[in-house]
Amino acid sequence: MQIISKIFDWKTYVFTAVAVIGFSNIVVQLFGQTIPNVMVTFFRNAGEVVILVSVFLFAITWLVKARPHNRPKNYDVIVFDVYGNKSEIDGIRTNFKTHDVAWSFMKQYKESYPLYNFALVTKHTKQDKPTIFKYI
Predict the structure, then answer these.
(1) What is the reported pTM?
(2) Where do the domains of the chain lie?
């Protein structure tokens, strides 16, 4: 009978109730505030790092692609007749220092001499074959 009276003793249940209430407060604090705050801080910092790294990667790739290229110093206009043979027309300019001026002169020559074709060429170095940029 004493065992049964010890099982139903209210002092044991008070201690258990206090332990459960105290533990539940810790659980609520842990899962309600501590873990979410740590996760939010971590993912916020991780997001900042991802954005910062992507900006730096974009900047580095842009700088690598935008580096100065080896541009030619002289452009020549070559005249071709109807049959595709090189020919010369007296009184036209054929040597230029800039691409835009050479292209403009080529368009003007094509209007003035419709039976001829014109090619804008350049040599990067003395060993290279001429490279045709435009052909009209």
Answers:
(1) 0.48
(2) 2-65, 75-135
